[in-house]
Specification:
Number of strands: 2
Distance between the termini: 13 Å
Number of helices: 5
Strand content: 5-15%
Helix content: 55-70%
Shape: globular
């Protein structure tokens, strides 16, 4: 399972979803969907803008969780 950890990074950077939307130029609803892990197809443009605005690597906001036991 792929999980977006945008909430953790925003908390570390002391930013809100609204401020991130302003910094990236991406609609708040899209940012909110990434924040709430409601995205099924990840847009490379959106991820690039988020990483650029947060000055982080893609691995800081996306993690892979192996659910196989």
């Amino acid at each position: 399972m792929v999980k977006i950890s945008l909430d953790k990074v925003l908390k570390e950077k002391d930013l809100t979803r609204y401020k991130l939307a302003q910094k990236t130029g991406i609609q708040y609803q899209i940012i909110d969907n990434y924040y709430k892990n409601k995205v099924t197809r990840y847009d490379s443009y959106v991820l690039d803008r988020i990483c650029s605005a947060l000055e982080c690597k893609i691995s800081d906001i996306i993690e892979y969780i192996n659910e196989e036991k």
